[in-house]
Amino acid sequence: MTRIDRRALFTSGAAAALLAATGASLADTPKSGGVLRIAVPRDDSLDRLARGAVFDTLTEIAPDGTLRGELATAWQTDSEAWVWTFDLRADAVFHDGVALTAGDVLAVLSEVGRAEALAPDRIRIELAEANPGLPFLLADTRFVITRDGQSVSPLQQANGTGCYRVERAEDGRHFRGRRVEGHYKDGQAGWLEAVDIIVIPDPVVRAEALRDRYVDVSVLPTAQGLRGLGGVRFFPSESDMALAISGTVGLPRRIGRGAPLDDGRIAERWWMA
Protein backbone atom coordinates (compact mmCIF):
# COMPACT_ATOMS: atom_id res chain seq x y z
CA MET A 1 0.00 0.00 0.00
CA THR A 2 1.40 3.40 -0.97
CA ARG A 3 1.81 6.32 1.39
CA ILE A 4 -1.20 8.04 -0.13
CA ASP A 5 -3.26 4.87 0.17
CA ARG A 6 -2.52 4.51 3.87
CA ARG A 7 -3.30 8.12 4.58
CA ALA A 8 -6.51 7.97 2.59
CA LEU A 9 -8.17 5.29 4.69
CA PHE A 10 -10.12 7.91 6.57
CA THR A 11 -12.34 7.11 9.53
CA SER A 12 -15.41 8.96 10.67
CA GLY A 13 -13.67 9.57 14.01
CA ALA A 14 -10.84 11.39 12.27
CA ALA A 15 -13.38 13.42 10.33
CA ALA A 16 -15.13 14.46 13.52
CA ALA A 17 -11.86 15.54 15.16
CA LEU A 18 -10.81 17.51 12.09
CA LEU A 19 -14.09 19.37 11.76
CA ALA A 20 -14.30 20.11 15.47
CA ALA A 21 -10.80 21.58 15.40
CA THR A 22 -11.62 23.86 12.48
CA GLY A 23 -15.05 24.95 13.68
CA ALA A 24 -16.93 23.20 10.89
CA SER A 25 -20.09 21.30 11.62
CA LEU A 26 -20.73 17.64 10.93
CA ALA A 27 -24.32 18.62 10.22
CA ASP A 28 -23.47 21.11 7.46
CA THR A 29 -26.00 20.75 4.67
CA PRO A 30 -24.64 20.10 1.17
CA LYS A 31 -25.03 23.01 -1.20
CA SER A 32 -25.46 22.79 -4.93
CA GLY A 33 -23.22 24.65 -7.36
CA GLY A 34 -19.63 25.70 -7.67
CA VAL A 35 -16.51 24.11 -9.13
CA LEU A 36 -14.24 21.90 -7.03
CA ARG A 37 -10.59 21.98 -8.14
CA ILE A 38 -8.33 19.12 -7.09
CA ALA A 39 -4.55 18.80 -7.56
CA VAL A 40 -3.22 15.24 -7.65
CA PRO A 41 0.19 13.59 -8.16
CA ARG A 42 1.12 11.56 -11.21
CA ASP A 43 -0.26 8.23 -10.00
CA ASP A 44 -3.71 6.64 -10.30
CA SER A 45 -5.49 9.50 -8.48
CA LEU A 46 -6.70 11.21 -11.67
CA ASP A 47 -8.19 8.00 -13.05
CA ARG A 48 -9.68 7.02 -9.70
CA LEU A 49 -11.45 10.36 -9.19
CA ALA A 50 -12.55 10.76 -12.82
CA ARG A 51 -14.01 7.26 -13.01
CA GLY A 52 -15.78 7.79 -9.69
CA ALA A 53 -17.42 10.87 -11.20
CA VAL A 54 -18.32 9.43 -14.61
CA PHE A 55 -19.23 5.80 -13.93
CA ASP A 56 -21.50 3.80 -11.65
CA THR A 57 -21.38 0.20 -10.47
CA LEU A 58 -24.20 -2.18 -9.68
CA THR A 59 -23.66 -1.71 -5.96
CA GLU A 60 -21.89 0.86 -3.81
CA ILE A 61 -20.22 0.66 -0.43
CA ALA A 62 -21.38 3.71 1.49
CA PRO A 63 -18.94 5.76 3.60
CA ASP A 64 -20.19 3.99 6.73
CA GLY A 65 -19.26 0.62 5.22
CA THR A 66 -22.78 -0.54 4.45
CA LEU A 67 -23.74 -1.92 1.06
CA ARG A 68 -26.36 -0.19 -1.03
CA GLY A 69 -27.63 -0.38 -4.56
CA GLU A 70 -26.43 1.95 -7.26
CA LEU A 71 -27.45 0.72 -10.72
CA ALA A 72 -29.04 -2.30 -9.05
CA THR A 73 -32.22 -1.72 -7.04
CA ALA A 74 -32.39 -5.22 -5.53
CA TRP A 75 -30.66 -8.59 -5.61
CA GLN A 76 -31.17 -12.09 -4.32
CA THR A 77 -29.46 -15.45 -4.40
CA ASP A 78 -30.13 -19.11 -3.77
CA SER A 79 -29.29 -20.82 -0.49
CA GLU A 80 -25.75 -21.59 -1.65
CA ALA A 81 -24.91 -18.12 -3.04
CA TRP A 82 -24.25 -19.78 -6.39
CA VAL A 83 -26.89 -18.15 -8.58
CA TRP A 84 -27.73 -14.46 -8.26
CA THR A 85 -30.32 -12.16 -9.80
CA PHE A 86 -30.07 -8.36 -9.93
CA ASP A 87 -32.84 -5.88 -10.73
CA LEU A 88 -31.67 -2.77 -12.58
CA ARG A 89 -32.68 0.86 -12.34
CA ALA A 90 -35.18 2.03 -14.92
CA ASP A 91 -34.02 5.66 -14.80
CA ALA A 92 -30.27 5.32 -15.44
CA VAL A 93 -29.08 6.89 -18.69
CA PHE A 94 -25.62 7.01 -20.26
CA HIS A 95 -24.17 10.42 -20.99
CA ASP A 96 -24.79 9.95 -24.71
CA GLY A 97 -28.53 9.75 -23.97
CA VAL A 98 -28.95 5.98 -24.29
CA ALA A 99 -30.77 4.21 -21.46
CA LEU A 100 -29.05 1.50 -19.43
CA THR A 101 -30.00 -2.05 -20.45
CA ALA A 102 -29.26 -5.51 -19.15
CA GLY A 103 -26.92 -5.98 -22.12
CA ASP A 104 -24.63 -3.23 -20.87
CA VAL A 105 -24.31 -5.00 -17.53
CA LEU A 106 -23.73 -8.41 -19.09
CA ALA A 107 -20.82 -7.05 -21.12
CA VAL A 108 -19.00 -6.07 -17.93
CA LEU A 109 -19.80 -9.10 -15.77
CA SER A 110 -18.65 -11.88 -18.07
CA GLU A 111 -15.51 -12.37 -15.96
CA VAL A 112 -17.58 -12.93 -12.83
CA GLY A 113 -19.62 -15.84 -14.11
CA ARG A 114 -22.14 -16.90 -16.72
CA ALA A 115 -24.52 -13.97 -17.03
CA GLU A 116 -27.78 -13.69 -18.91
CA ALA A 117 -30.66 -11.26 -19.21
CA LEU A 118 -33.98 -12.44 -17.77
CA ALA A 119 -35.68 -9.18 -18.77
CA PRO A 120 -34.57 -5.74 -19.98
CA ASP A 121 -34.10 -4.73 -16.34
CA ARG A 122 -33.08 -8.04 -14.75
CA ILE A 123 -29.99 -10.22 -15.00
CA ARG A 124 -28.96 -13.62 -13.70
CA ILE A 125 -25.39 -14.61 -12.85
CA GLU A 126 -24.30 -18.21 -12.30
CA LEU A 127 -20.93 -18.34 -10.57
CA ALA A 128 -18.20 -20.92 -11.04
CA GLU A 129 -18.13 -21.26 -7.26
CA ALA A 130 -20.34 -19.93 -4.49
CA ASN A 131 -19.65 -16.38 -3.29
CA PRO A 132 -21.93 -14.83 -0.65
CA GLY A 133 -19.92 -11.60 -0.96
CA LEU A 134 -20.68 -11.03 -4.65
CA PRO A 135 -22.67 -7.77 -4.10
CA PHE A 136 -19.67 -6.30 -2.26
CA LEU A 137 -17.33 -7.44 -5.03
CA LEU A 138 -19.44 -5.72 -7.67
CA ALA A 139 -18.95 -2.36 -5.94
CA ASP A 140 -15.29 -2.46 -6.99
CA THR A 141 -14.22 -0.01 -9.69
CA ARG A 142 -13.19 -2.97 -11.86
CA PHE A 143 -16.89 -3.45 -12.50
CA VAL A 144 -17.99 0.04 -13.53
CA ILE A 145 -20.78 -0.23 -16.07
CA THR A 146 -20.04 1.11 -19.53
CA ARG A 147 -22.27 1.21 -22.56
CA ASP A 148 -22.13 -2.14 -24.33
CA GLY A 149 -18.75 -2.98 -22.83
CA GLN A 150 -16.92 0.13 -24.05
CA SER A 151 -13.52 0.85 -22.54
CA VAL A 152 -13.20 3.26 -19.63
CA SER A 153 -10.34 4.97 -21.43
CA PRO A 154 -9.36 7.30 -22.91
CA LEU A 155 -11.01 9.64 -20.42
CA GLN A 156 -12.13 12.03 -23.15
CA GLN A 157 -14.42 9.32 -24.53
CA ALA A 158 -15.64 7.92 -21.20
CA ASN A 159 -19.39 7.30 -21.35
CA GLY A 160 -20.98 6.33 -18.06
CA THR A 161 -24.13 6.83 -16.01
CA GLY A 162 -22.45 8.79 -13.18
CA CYS A 163 -23.29 12.24 -11.87
CA TYR A 164 -20.70 13.92 -14.12
CA ARG A 165 -20.15 13.73 -17.85
CA VAL A 166 -16.77 14.43 -19.43
CA GLU A 167 -16.46 18.00 -20.62
CA ARG A 168 -12.77 17.75 -21.44
CA ALA A 169 -9.97 15.43 -20.42
CA GLU A 170 -6.52 14.19 -21.27
CA ASP A 171 -5.18 10.99 -19.73
CA GLY A 172 -2.41 11.64 -17.25
CA ARG A 173 -2.94 15.42 -17.29
CA HIS A 174 -6.40 16.74 -16.46
CA PHE A 175 -10.14 16.13 -16.31
CA ARG A 176 -13.21 18.33 -16.14
CA GLY A 177 -16.59 16.80 -15.40
CA ARG A 178 -19.88 18.69 -15.72
CA ARG A 179 -22.91 17.74 -13.62
CA VAL A 180 -25.60 15.79 -15.47
CA GLU A 181 -28.98 17.52 -15.33
CA GLY A 182 -31.86 15.36 -14.11
CA HIS A 183 -29.59 12.61 -12.79
CA TYR A 184 -31.21 9.84 -10.77
CA LYS A 185 -29.09 10.86 -7.74
CA ASP A 186 -30.29 14.47 -7.73
CA GLY A 187 -30.78 15.63 -4.16
CA GLN A 188 -28.60 12.80 -2.83
CA ALA A 189 -25.21 13.30 -4.53
CA GLY A 190 -23.52 15.30 -7.26
CA TRP A 191 -23.71 18.72 -5.58
CA LEU A 192 -21.04 20.41 -7.66
CA GLU A 193 -21.70 22.12 -10.94
CA ALA A 194 -18.32 20.89 -12.15
CA VAL A 195 -15.14 19.24 -10.93
CA ASP A 196 -11.62 19.94 -12.21
CA ILE A 197 -8.77 17.51 -11.56
CA ILE A 198 -5.24 18.45 -12.58
CA VAL A 199 -2.03 16.44 -12.33
CA ILE A 200 0.81 18.36 -10.66
CA PRO A 201 3.74 15.98 -10.08
CA ASP A 202 5.67 18.14 -7.59
CA PRO A 203 4.13 18.19 -4.07
CA VAL A 204 5.68 21.60 -3.40
CA VAL A 205 3.85 23.04 -6.39
CA ARG A 206 0.61 21.31 -5.33
CA ALA A 207 0.93 22.98 -1.93
CA GLU A 208 1.59 26.35 -3.56
CA ALA A 209 -1.48 25.90 -5.79
CA LEU A 210 -3.66 25.42 -2.70
CA ARG A 211 -2.00 28.26 -0.79
CA ASP A 212 -2.52 30.64 -3.71
CA ARG A 213 -6.13 29.44 -4.17
CA TYR A 214 -5.68 27.96 -7.61
CA VAL A 215 -7.10 24.67 -6.28
CA ASP A 216 -9.36 23.71 -3.38
CA VAL A 217 -7.94 20.28 -2.52
CA SER A 218 -4.38 18.97 -2.85
CA VAL A 219 -3.17 15.42 -2.40
CA LEU A 220 -0.09 15.92 -0.22
CA PRO A 221 2.18 13.75 1.94
CA THR A 222 3.00 16.56 4.43
CA ALA A 223 1.77 19.97 5.51
CA GLN A 224 5.02 21.64 4.45
CA GLY A 225 4.40 25.15 3.17
CA LEU A 226 0.84 25.27 4.50
CA ARG A 227 1.23 25.31 8.30
CA GLY A 228 -0.31 28.39 9.84
CA LEU A 229 -2.37 29.18 6.75
CA GLY A 230 -5.85 30.11 7.87
CA GLY A 231 -8.77 27.96 6.78
CA VAL A 232 -6.72 25.03 5.48
CA ARG A 233 -7.56 21.61 6.95
CA PHE A 234 -5.24 18.63 6.95
CA PHE A 235 -6.81 15.23 6.54
CA PRO A 236 -6.89 13.01 8.44
CA SER A 237 -4.40 15.05 10.55
CA GLU A 238 -1.48 17.42 10.12
CA SER A 239 1.02 14.83 11.31
CA ASP A 240 -0.33 11.96 9.23
CA MET A 241 -2.04 13.38 6.20
CA ALA A 242 -3.14 12.67 2.67
CA LEU A 243 -5.10 15.79 1.76
CA ALA A 244 -4.97 19.52 2.37
CA ILE A 245 -8.43 21.04 2.01
CA SER A 246 -9.52 24.65 1.68
CA GLY A 247 -12.11 25.98 4.09
CA THR A 248 -14.37 26.64 1.10
CA VAL A 249 -14.97 22.89 0.69
CA GLY A 250 -17.84 21.12 2.43
CA LEU A 251 -17.15 17.63 3.78
CA PRO A 252 -19.69 14.84 4.31
CA ARG A 253 -20.35 13.38 7.75
CA ARG A 254 -18.33 10.30 6.87
CA ILE A 255 -15.42 9.79 4.50
CA GLY A 256 -15.23 6.46 2.69
CA ARG A 257 -12.39 4.33 4.04
CA GLY A 258 -12.51 1.38 1.64
CA ALA A 259 -10.22 3.04 -0.92
CA PRO A 260 -8.25 6.29 -1.28
CA LEU A 261 -9.84 9.68 -1.93
CA ASP A 262 -13.23 8.93 -0.33
CA ASP A 263 -13.43 5.71 -2.34
CA GLY A 264 -12.74 7.79 -5.45
CA ARG A 265 -16.10 9.53 -5.04
CA ILE A 266 -15.08 13.00 -3.92
CA ALA A 267 -16.80 14.54 -6.96
CA GLU A 268 -20.24 13.23 -6.06
CA ARG A 269 -20.00 13.39 -2.24
CA TRP A 270 -18.25 16.71 -1.48
CA TRP A 271 -19.50 20.25 -2.13
CA MET A 272 -18.48 23.90 -2.04
CA ALA A 273 -19.44 25.40 1.31
From TrEMBL:
Subcellular location: Periplasm
One Pfam family matching this protein: SBP_bac_5
Main location: periplasm
Cited InterPro entries: SBP_5, SBP_5_dom, TAT_signal
Signal peptide interval: 1-27
Organism annotation: Ruegeria arenilitoris
UniProt-recorded name of the protein: Putative D,D-dipeptide-binding periplasmic protein DdpA
Protein family per UniProt: Belongs to the bacterial solute-binding protein 5 family.
Keywords: Signal, Transport
